[in-house]
What we know:
The longest helix is centred in the middle third of the chain and has 34 residues, at about 1-35. Helices cover about 80% and strands about 0% of the residues. The radius of gyration is 21 Å and the shape is elongated. By secondary structure, the chain is mainly alpha-helical. The N and C termini lie far apart (about 65 Å). The chain has 2 helices and no strands. It has a domain at about 20-54. This is CcoQ/FixQ family Cbb3-type cytochrome c oxidase assembly chaperone. Keywords: Membrane, Transmembrane, Transmembrane helix. InterPro entries: Cbb3-typ_cyt_oxidase_comp (IPR008621). It comes from Bradyrhizobium aeschynomenes.
Amino acid sequence: MKPIIAVENIASSLVTTLWTPIFVAIFIAIVTYALWPRNKAAFDEAASMPLREE
C-alpha cells in the first residue's frame, strides 16, 4: 500500500507546482486580451450583433 500513496503524493505535488502557475498565466493573458483598449471596437461590435435586425 505504501507505493500507491507515494505515487499519489508525487502526482499531487506535480499538479500543484506545475499546472497551477500555467493556468494562472493563461487566465491573466485572457483577461489582458479582453481588457486591452485596441480590442474595444471589436468587442463592442460583437456585443451589438444580437440586437441587429437583418
